[in-house]
Predict the structure.
Amino acid sequence: MDTHGINQFYKVLADTLPTRWTERGLREVAGLSAPSGILGKNEWLLKADYAITVGRWFLEGLVDLARHVESGNNIGHVYIEIFAQLRMLAQHAPEDEVELAATQLANFAWREVEARRGMGRERISAALKEAVWFNSAPDQRCYLCGYQFTQHARDLFLRRTRQEMTPLNLVDFTRPRGAKARHLRIELDHEIPVAEGGATDEDNLYLACGWCNLTKSKLWSVYDARAWAAGVFRHPDPKIGTVTLPQPLWILRLIAARGRCEATASCPARLNNSELFVAPFNTKGALTPTNLMVVCAEHDPWAASRFIAPSLLPNRK
Ligand SMILES: [Zn+2]
Ligand SMILES: [Zn+2]
């Protein structure tokens, strides 16, 4: 780790505190590059989501897709707008390069325009639900967190019962699945969102628990969540004590994307055979995006104290 860089980095952050809402202060901050090592083991996720986020902003800043969704326009109209903007932004770039970039962007945008036009039209039939369920046999789990569905959830999903699930008495304080009945239900999630052109078919639908589906919602990346901290929780076990809880989206995104227990290199726990949890790398630190690690039940440092009464949790949705 680059300790000299860290020293400089935090000096600028401290010096610019009074000017953090001014262009002058922020330009100074922007001139910093993050010292090596500061993003920790989750650097890949933080960088990927940053790229996805700015990629979307740039594209939608070139062309407001909502306008094309409502009109009867075709991809040619989108291309023309994008090309004109790019031509202006990159005045010295060769013509063929601008054309190529505009084509790439127009194709990317068009998939989404088409998807948004068709949104809400497709209904998920009982037959499709059954197909997705039986395709994931015999060990049906949430594809995002590895939670194994109960028989009751199965019966409700396949409409063999109408009896609602019962909320749990104990929930994981980092991810309180079970605080509400819906969390325990089986839902179908589009792996590629409908808004990005994902189809409503067996290949793109996966079983997700209600908690993951609710948390994922329409969010794209870790930067779509509000501030990283969702609240402060006082654990009844004094060995754990006060814990700053991160946004649920953070937990979901890391577990789903990492997909395996990282406590040891040889642990075989994966989403398709185990439920996975988050714990801190550094137990003295808060559960920040750079301090979260994925563990299985067996390697869970919090195994003895993870499950608590939902009433102890700070306010949540
Ligand atoms: Zn889940
Ligand atoms: Zn493990």
